[in-house]
Amino acid sequence: MSYTIKNNISFDEYNAIINKVIEDCFVDGVYSPALYELSLRVSLISAFVPAYDLSDCKDNNALWKRVTSEECKDILDEIMYETMECNNICVAIKNGINHRLRAIEASPMSLSDIALSKLIGVVTEKIDSIDNEILNSDTISALINAEKQTNKEDFEAKLVDEMIARDLISKPNRATRRKSTKNNKNITVKTNVVPVNTESESNSDTDK
After folding, report:
1. What are the strands, taking DSSP E only, across the chain?
2. Is 131 left (phi over 0), alpha (psi -120 to 50) or beta?
3. What secondary structure letter does DSSP report for 26?
């Protein structure tokens, strides 16, 4: 079966592909080349061959099997060599990935950031099990007074030390920051395009 391949796409589609692939290929701040390859192929096919249906692929394994089929290879080859935007898309995505990697390298999470982020999840879970009768005006006032009397830096330091002692977190280094226990995420098929209506925005500003 033959499919019509669009010769060009709108700026909104162009921008959406770039943002989607960059977002898809990072899992918990760790870059995944495999997810880059999968997301790029899915995004290009969805944008340039909208009639090609990938919606029946329920997970990454099914998507990968489909987009690496002979049929999709032929489609992607034609997109790569026959459309003007494809090379620019790939370059823009690589630039975006490199920018994010440099940002991650320059500002790793501190121990207190890690501890507090984990603590939020625990607190959220515990709040659901709190007896509402306990949350009276006296207990709330006591909590507020305790917080006011606590030095923020001293609190963070004690929190980190306590969580390390209980093996809730470990001291990060370059090696452990690069590891991820779940180095995967499900790639969605459709590219979310947010139209930019500059004309209506301009008219709105003029009316003001």
Report:
1. 26-27, 30-31
2. beta
3. E
Distance CA 127, CA 137 (A): 17
pTM: 0.56
Percent helix, percent strand, percent coil in the chain, to nearest 5: 65, 0, 35
Q: Which amino acid is at 169?
A: I
Tokens of 99: 């920018």
Nearest to 18, CA basis, from 100, 107, 104:
100
* DSSP H/E element including 38: helix 33-48
Torsion of CA 162, 168, 174, 178, to 10 degrees: -160
Q: What is the pLDDT of residues 83-109, one digit of tens each?
A: 888 999 999 999 999 999 988 877 656
CA angle 175, 179, 181 (to 5 degrees): 150
Tell me how many degrees the CA angle 67-56-78 measures, rounded to the nearest 5. 30
Summarised one tens digit per residue, pLDDT across range 1-19 is: 678 899 889 999 999 999 9
- Residue that has been written with the tokens 């192929």 in this structure: 41
